[in-house]
Amino acid sequence: MNASTSPAADAFSSVHTASFPSLLRELSSSLLVTTFQAGRLILLRPQDGALNTHFYALPRPMGLAVDENRIFVGAARSVHEYRNIPAVAARLDPPNVNDAVYLLRNVHVTGHVDIHEMAFTRDECWYVNTLFSCLCTLDNEHSFVPRWKPRFISGYAPEDRCHLNGLAMGDGLPRFLTALGRSNEKEGWRANKRSGGILLDYASGEIVASGLSMPHSPRLHRGRLWVLESGKGALSTVDPNSGRVETVVQLPGFTRGLDFVGPIAFVGLSQLRASNPFTDIPLTDQNPDRASGVWAVDTRSGQIVAFLRFSATVEEIFAVQALVGLVSPTILEDDHPLLASTWAIPDELLREVELAPEATGAVAEPAAGPAERGAAG
């Protein structure tokens, strides 16, 4: 696989294999990636035979929750909610190129809770509150609403007791979670970073696998339970009945951030430089030449089929999320002028919208929600 230079700005440069953009186009997908260390949300899109990387500045972005119409990003002290308003595509330059246009709609202030993985359960956004060792939801009144915690956690305290981090969904509900240790003491998980990791069953609260090396990103896909053993740089499967772990492939970095499109697993990799607190692990013993980026693995064979490697500016990746069915989406910057003249209103009231000719081309078409339409003046 030959690597070519990405057209990103020099400070955020990258190289990728020629197979990466063609793979995304074949899968009719693009990717969202977060790097909390560099403070960027990254959109990866196939474009003219290359891979376009667009960087959006956000304060310490980590978790991502995505459905057909929404993107939620967990940041340093808040959750940022973006909605797809397709009508705006006609007003961009060049027009009608983007198959989705996401605009900021809400910012929910959580305070510092160290948001890790996020997911939607129908109309709710759930997220891992790592600082308070619990799984939470959002509402309009509270910083966070605790919904679940491991059995061994006695109460809610801002102490990062077990470093709860990963969330696997199944049938629209939480199914499995990962933590870096079974501890009820402040930062107690740090005592055994190498092999103290656990996989928890949401419904029963039981530990279904232990002895894991810094596990992250549990996922249910095609009837199998997947997990990243980050401390080994591994993509693995877990038998939830026996707890047996099998490595599918080892990759050249700290594996964190995982999503699937068909048979392809997109895995985030981080470098973990010497100053990182997670260096005393098997990966750093065995592989001093680590990379940051996104690697694509064929789960049928365990073979690497494509990769994107970032420059030294982006050293750590947290989340990787596919936008399936979208090859040219865009996200408007929070200060984009079109945010001032784009409105989302209830569908039943569109007939009463009156826009003067000079405000145009007054556009009203289905927005991303089932009961929303976008009016763009």
**Cα end-to-end separation:** 47 Å
- The CATH H-level homologous superfamily: TolB, C-terminal domain
Helical stretch tally: 2
Number of strands: 30
Written overview of the protein:
By secondary structure, the chain is mainly beta. The protein is built from two helices and 30 strands. It has helices at residues 19-26, 282-286; strands spanning 3-5, 14-17, 29-35, 40-47, 50-57, 64-66, 70-74, 78-84, 100-109, 115-121, 124-129, 134-137, 145-148, 164-170, 173-179, 197-201, 207-212, 215-221, 224-229, 234-238, 245-250, 254-261, 264-270, 293-298, 303-310, 320-324, 329-331, 342-346, 363-366, 372-376. It has a six-stranded antiparallel β-sheet, covered by helices on one side. A hairpin with a 2-residue loop joins strand 10 and strand 11.
Name a few traits of the molecule:
377 residues; mainly beta; Neuraminidase; six-stranded antiparallel beta sheet; five-stranded mixed beta sheet; 2 helices; 30 strands
